Task: structure prediction
Amino acid sequence: MNLSRYHFFACSLLLGLLLSNSRIANAQSLKIPYVSLSPTAGPLWIAYETGLFKRNNINAELLYIPGGSTIIQAIISGDVKIANMAPPSAIGAWAKGFDLSLVASGVDQLLETVVTGAAIKTAAELKNKKIGVSRFGSLTDMALREALRYSGAIDGAMLSGDKLVQAEKMGYHVTIDLSQLPIYYPVNGVITSRKFVAGNRDVARGFLRAWVEGIKIFKTDKDQSLKVLAKYLKIQDREILEKSHEIYRPVYKKIPYGDRRAVRFALEQMAKDIPESAKLNADDFIDNSIISELEKSGFIDQIYEPTSKP
Result:
């Protein structure tokens, strides 16, 4: 290597290091809470584990916070800027006047089931029976097993994802499958404030780019998805992981627009406790502008191409 070529190589290497360090220094730090220890959080976990947030200039810190109301309080206080969660808690707070917005919605389909023992075979037989209900991920595997096995404690339980698959392996069966009902309901979305989007649009766009690509991997790369699910769900049983992934993989939307039908349905369910919700326009809660940008730019179609490198 002659001297001039050596100098060129050295300068190129130095420039690359400087640019890399500059990107790191300018990266936005984001605390990103998620509400569910369930495969519904799979795309978020994948975006983190595969470096998609870093690629989009975001230093992400994922936080498991098992309670939608707690996350909403953190957003309202400014401690958290953006979250991946079930939107109903945010819809309720927005109905009361707080600055919250749905900027993307990955799943708008109920996936809960009512699981019972062999003694109960039809939905009609559940009348006057005791059904256990909890938030996603609020029961550990041990607690779930004990609740189902303890005779007389409950007659059934509302379960989804890996908890449902584990219950079926224990001999319980699905008596009601809510996914078969013609109901649009916001199950998993991205919540932030309009103030944050207005002042930090590039950051919000970077987050959504990473999350949307996480959805793509979740839908198309089974091995990567199962590896990440195993880590966060702390499950090594491949059958449970595969069946859990298969429940969520097809229902995640390629283009995760917020759906007014899902938000409208949630508002209707809240009308008894929050009367003002009946007068609200679901479109005022939804901001699809960034997802629309990503679609129109060709980004989403590009990442689904076999050899794409966004």
The longest helix spans residues 3-26. The longest strand covers residues 101-109. Strands lie at 28-34, 58-64, 82-85, 101-109, 113-116, 131-132, 156-159, 173-177, 184-192. The CA atoms of residues 132 and 157 lie 4 Å apart.
